[in-house]
Design goal:
Blueprint (H helix, E strand, L loop, with lengths): L5 H47 L8 H12 L7 E7 L4 E4 L5 H7 L50 E7 L2 E9 L3 E8 L1 H36 L1 H11 L17 H52 L5 H30 L7 E5 H15 L4 E6 L4 E5 H17 L6 E9 L2 E9 L5 H4 L23 H11 L3 E4 L6 E9 L3
Parallel strand pairs: 7-9
Antiparallel strand pairs: 1-2, 1-5, 3-4, 4-5, 6-8, 9-10, 10-12, 11-12
């Protein structure tokens, strides 16, 4: 799944990286602790297994068994099982809970046969007075004594076996005198390692939470210059292209970005001023020659013979000049809107009354259409009456021009929250999805309307939206519904 938030992505990746590192460290640490505990047990188990494989008197074993937990470093509750067999395989000592079935399950490894005692010369330290074996507790405690005919005990074999009653660490050795097997339960070590594992899990969870919060905060701090730049960019409008984003104390990584953006604003400002100045100047310069042309055509029509072909031609020319006058007037208003210089003479305007008057004109302009009106009373707004009249006339004219034969028009006006909404709906063919976003483009009329049978040049809706926005409102195209087209004008309600 792709994370669209750069800040969230940084926090998540940081947390994942930290989590992976902590998990790897915890696993290695846990394993080393376990190996250390088992190694320490192995060293003691090897020593005690060797002791058990040396020849002993029968009354020595109870004391050895009682001391065995302490010698192995385990507590008294840890199960320990011991079996010692003589050279002939007969039991010398065996724990009470040692059974033949358990011995078979234990799978004692095959042990090498040690050298015979007869092959070793007797070793007796003559520097001391002779001592009997009965008076000695252990040859390791008294290194000067060597039992006659004794041989060194081989290295014990150690291993871990998992049985039905848990895991056991087993040490086994065979000497010339006996075979000894000591099995120590690993339950205590497993419990300790389980506790350590839980501690690691709790510590890792808490650490990851701290890392996630810290990464989120650090990412937010690192992205603060971006948010500041975004805020500055949001304040840049058509009327504020001269606004520059201050470099200030921005980080080195963002200075170049800010400089490039400021340079882009400068280029946009120059281009926009040139285009706005051109359209405004062109419209203004065209007004005078068009007015002169219109006056000359009207005077020529008065001198032409009534009903003649000349008069008809002059009338057609006069219509074209009037059409050009309308285009120039709209272009001039649009250039003023682009420059943020559209002057508004604001007064209280009753849109309900204005629409009612327009309904009477619609009955004359479009007698073939069915008109329905649902207008609430007293829809008052603050605005320029002439410009708002032009907006409503554009919407109604658009609904008439692009209607279906014997179609219908529905006009709704209502108050919603602190705004007035005027919706003009007409029967029409569906607007293609690719053209819905272009309906407010200047000079855009759509392929079906690019003919002289339908009046207009594609500036009406664009100009109407600019006028609405100059009044802190808006004009939008409603969602597509089969067989109809709807435009909604929204204006702030009069306080």
């Amino acid at each position: 799944m792709k994370l669209n938030s750069f800040r969230l992505r940084i926090a998540v990746l940081s947390t994942v990286l930290a989590g992976s590192s902590l998990m790897a460290f915890s696993f290695v640490a846990w394993r080393l602790i376990y190996v250390a505990k088992v190694s320490r047990l192995d060293a003691r188990l090897e020593q005690q297994t060797r002791r058990a494989a040396r020849p002993r008197l029968s009354d020595w074993w109870p004391g050895f068994v009682r001391a065995l937990p302490g010698e192995l470093g385990t507590d008294v509750a840890t199960p320990i099982r011991l079996q010692v067999l003589d050279a002939n395989g007969s039991p010398i000592y065996q724990s009470e809970d040692w059974s033949e079935d358990w011995s078979a399950e234990l799978r004692i490894p095959a042990l090498p046969t040690p050298p015979s005692p007869a092959s070793q010369p007797p070793q007796l330290n003559r520097s001391r007075s002779p001592r009997t074996f009965d008076s000695l507790e252990d040859s390791e405690i008294h290194p000067d004594f060597r039992f006659p005919g004794a041989v060194p005990v081989p290295e014990p074999r150690l291993g871990t076996q998992t049985l039905d009653n848990g895991s056991w660490r087993v040490g086994a050795v065979r000497s010339a005198h006996a075979q000894a097997v000591i099995a120590v339960s690993l339950e205590a070590i497993d419990q300790e390692m389980g506790a350590i594992r839980n501690i690691f899990l709790v510590a890792i969870s808490g650490t990851l939470l701290v890392v996630a919060v810290g990464a989120w905060g650090l990412a937010g701090s690192a992205l603060r210059p971006i948010r500041k730049l975004t805020t500055e960019i949001q304040h840049v409008t058509i009327t504020g292209l001269d606004r520059q984003v201050p470099v200030g104390e921005a980080d080195v990584e963002f200075v170049q970005l800010i400089q490039v953006f400021n340079q882009m604003l400068e280029r946009l400002e120059r281009s926009f001023k040139q285009a706005s100045r051109f359209s405004g100047d062109a419209a203004h310069e065209l007004k005078t020659p068009l007015a002169i042309l219109q006056g000359e055509l009207e005077r020529a029509m008065q001198h032409a013979e009534p009903g003649s072909e000349l008069q008809q031609n002059l009338s057609n020319l006069l219509d074209e000049v009037s059409r050009l006058n309308g285009i120039v007037r709209k272009l001039l208003l649009l250039s003023l809107a682009d420059a943020g210089q559209m002057s508004l003479y604001t007064v209280a305007v009753d849109l309900s009354e204005m629409l009612t008057v327009m309904l009477e004109d619609m009955e004359l302009l479009a007698p073939h259409l069915t008109v329905q009106m649902d207008i609430a009373d007293h829809l008052w707004v603050w605005g320029d009456r002439d410009l708002l009249m032009q907006v409503l006339q554009n919407l109604i004219s658009n609904a008439i021009k692009y209607n279906l034969p014997n179609g219908w028009i529905q006009i709704q006006g209502q108050q919603q929250d602190q705004s007035v909404r005027i919706t003009v709906t007409n029967a029409s063919n569906p607007i293609p999805d690719g053209e819905r976003d272009r309906i407010f483009d200047r000079f855009y009329r759509g392929d079906p309307a690019r003919n002289r049978k339908v009046e207009g040049v594609g500036l009406g809706l664009s100009l109407s939206r600019e006028i609405a926005r100059a009044h802190n409102g808006d004009l939008i195209l409603n969602e597509a519904i089969e067989g109809q087209t709807a435009l909604t004008l929204t204006l702030p309600l009069k306080d």
